[in-house]
Amino acid sequence: MRAMAVIENGKPLQPIELPTPEPEGEQVLLEVTHCGVCHSDIHIWDGFYDMGGGKVLTLKDRGVTLPLAMGHEVVGRVLKLGPRAAASGLKVGDLRLVFPWVGCGTCAKCRADEDNMCLKPRSIGVYQHGGYATHVLVPEPRHLIAIDGLDPALAATYACSGLTVYSAIRKVMPLPPEEPIVLFGAGGLGLNAIAVLRALGHKRIVVVDIDARKREAALAEGATDVVDGKADTPDEVAARVIAACGGPVEAVIDLVGAGPSARAAFASLRKGGALILVGLYGGDLPLPLPVMPTRALTVRGSYVGNVKELRELIALAKGGKLPAIPIATEPLEKAGEALNRLRAGQVIGRIVLAADGKF
Fold first, then answer.
1. Residue whose C-alpha is closest to residue 351's, from 337, 217, 69, 75
2. Is the domain of 153 the same as that of 190?
3. Does residue 359 belong to any structural domain of this protein?
4. Which of 355, 339, 348, 295 is nearest to 46 (CA)?
5. Do 289 and 313 sit in the same domain of this protein?
6. Element (H, E) at 359
7. Residues 6+ apart with CB under 8 A from 359
8. Same domain, residue pair 314 and 277
9. How confident is the model at residue 69, as a pLDDT?
10. Hey, is 14 helix, strand or coil?
11. What's the confidence (pLDDT) of residue 221?
């Protein structure tokens, strides 16, 4: 199989040939048709995460090995089935969305369809080759979801961008529809979060971003209010959020995950409020410990989502309730260019690598 792979962290992606896997047991081999380009791919490409305070976590520390074909937002056609996968009802030629956040497959979390909480992760596009390639190997049929009637380019984004925000939103629900929910970040995650909130019937969606173009995109997607996130201090941003919302807020979801965004988000909370941290930009968030219990605040991380949540999200989309986000398609050979555009903040919505017979 062919792939655009990370050969050396921080260096341009390189086209390489890899052995095409032969599925065993319950494994399923797919021919990739679409693969989203996600901001977390930039961290894998760079090879580290900024942990704040001058500390970094390297991908080598996490067990990621090179060369690696990244890509975890994958749609493909079934090409081959392992001997034990045939009983699943899958057929060669079926188009399926891949749940990429797979684990060991045997622990209690994996068997409960909560693979993303497995202590031995094997995520596709992170620990094993993903969708920046012509083929991808999926561990079990349960990680494949039918997307009949959906645009496969858009559906690909649901495996990470859509699932990640859906899972984060579930962590602050239920809330009254008119209660403001604040989203920091109007990239692919932010626009999918607006779409999910609208699909769930939420009425008040406030979006914070430093880029005027992305704030305009958020309004076009259905945000009720936008806030300029560019300021001298996080407290200034928090004051703008509080003014836009008519007071401190019950729920903030930080899709950026930078030190300044997290500080502004935390400072925006009302008593009993919750901050859900999603983004991986980097940095740290110092917490005033007496304030946490006296104001009954919650700060919680949300890591992607599980396959049960992805099935729920796809059901929403199939029901016609999930508005589309802007999608631009590019051939696999332009994966490196797509990553550079994403790093430079030039992408509105999502770039999806599409085969179109050219992978």
1. 337
2. no
3. no
4. 339
5. no
6. none
7. 2, 32, 134, 331, 332, 353
8. no
9. 98
10. strand
11. 97
- Would you say 120 and 107 are in contact if contact means Cβ atoms under 8 Å apart? yes
Same domain for 19 and 155: yes
Residues spanned by the domain of 215? 172-301
Question: Kind and range of the H or E element at 255?
Answer: none
**How far is Cα 11 from Cα 228, in angstroms, rounded to an integer?**
34
CA angle 79–80–84, rounded 5-degree value: 145
- 61 close to 9: Cβ distance less than 8 angstroms: no
What is the CATH classification number for the domain harbouring 142? 3.90.180.10
Could you tell me if 153 and 354 are in contact, meaning their C-beta atoms sit under 8 angstroms apart?
A: yes
Q: pLDDT tens digit string along 93-144?
A: 999 999 999 999 999 999 999 999 999 999 999 999 999 999 999 999 999 9
Q: How far is CA 344 from CA 4, 39, 165, in A?
A: 20, 11, 22
Q: Are 67 and 54 in contact (CB under 8 A)?
A: no
Identify which of 156, 116, 49 has the alpha carbon closest to the alpha carbon of residue 302. 116
HEC per residue, 145-177: EECCCCCHHHHHHHHHHHHHHHHHHHCCCCCCC
pTM over the 0.85 mark: yes
What CATH number is associated with residue 177? Answer: 3.40.50.720
What lies within 8 Å, CB to CB, of 74 at 6+ separation is 30, 32, 34, 35, 36, 97, 98, 100, 124, 125, 130, 131, 136, 156, 159
- pLDDT digit string (tens) for 332-350? 999 999 999 999 999 999 9
Report the number of distinct structural domains present in the chain: 2
The list of the chain residues with pLDDT below 70 reads: 356-359
